[in-house]
Write a structure and sequence with these properties.
Length: 257
């Protein structure tokens, strides 16, 4: 655990954001602090702004920040582009979405690593480190030579994402797990990935956006937030996820209208 003097890995204060091409704010004042080593879950109904939050954190040009601040390890990152955020150690699942057809998982990871750390591992070095991670994560070794965009299933995309997280050694990982149709194995890969990466890097901060209680059963978040209408309306411990699963969001969407 961190000293009291360590700044939070991620400090979001009253964050507001709207689509760049016009329209009302989608995020209406999100406040959330992730300290080193904490796992936060963000839950909320469809359309509440969860993916928008992830995209704004990654610096997507699709959104304009209209208010509030985001600090990464104490620095205000308002002026940082997506590449600078990635290089500094913010991992966002869709950081490198340009998957060129014909590029293998291995090659893709090599490019991502070069962007994050400015080091170019040889293919052999990279293969060895990826092999080790695939073994730790229970991923079949042949996966490294699969081609991106070559008919990846939802679960395979997740495996690629988790491998990427492991190899890039981020300070904070933001995972938008709203993809429907992930089977329990894919959810376990995500949970196990987070667990294994945290084993090496106990200070890693994680924000998991999910609808799945099942994922949270595997992942054991420290803090659970409920986002409704672009704002966090409730924060609690892991029991909150269970409550929301049992009761649904109705009580909160009604109040927030
Ligand atoms: N670029 C955009 N332009 C206009 N509206 C947008 C844009 N991005 C998101 N929205 C709207 O903002 C709201 C929040 O969308 P968002 O994708 O963040 O929801 P979500 O909480 O991730 O939902 P889900 O649970 O379905 O994944 C939705 O009404 C969506 O249509
Ligand atoms: Mg979403």
């Amino acid at each position: 655990m961190a000293d009291a003097v360590d700044p939070p890995v991620l400090e979001i204060e009253d964050l507001r954001a709207a689509p760049t091409d016009g329209g009302d704010d989608i995020l209406n004042g999100v406040t959330l602090t992730v300290r080193p080593g904490e796992v936060h879950a963000v839950m909320g109904p469809n359309g509440s702004g969860k993916s928008t939050l992830a995209n704004v954190l990654l610096g997507s040009p699709e959104y304009e920040v209209t208010g509030g601040t985001v600090r990464f390890r104490g620095d205000d990152i308002a002026d940082w582009g997506p590449d600078a955020r990635g290089a500094a150690g913010m991992f966002l699942a869709f950081q490198y979405p340009q998957a060129i057809p014909g590029v293998s998982v291995l090659n893709f990871l090599r490019q991502a690593l070069s962007a994050r750390k400015g080091i170019d591992l040889s293919m052999l070095e990279l293969r060895l480190s990826i092999m080790e991670w695939m073994e730790r994560l229970g991923i079949d070794p042949s996966f490294a030579d699969r081609h991106l965009n070559d008919g990846f299933s939802g679960g395979e995309k997740k495996r690629n994402e988790v491998l990427q997280m492991a190899i890039l050694e981020p300070e904070v990982a933001i995972l938008d797990e709203t993809d429907s149709g992930l089977d329990i194995d894919a959810l376990r890969t995500v949970a196990r990935g987070v667990e294994e990466v945290r084993r090496d890097r106990p200070d890693l901060g994680v924000v998991v956006i999910t609808h799945y209680q099942r994922l949270l059963d595997e992942l054991a978040p420290d803090v659970v937030h409920l986002i409704v209408d672009g704002r966090i309306v409730l924060t609690g411990g892991p029991e909150l996820a269970t409550e929301l699963e049992a009761e649904g969001y109705g009580k909160w969407t009604g109040d927030a209208a």
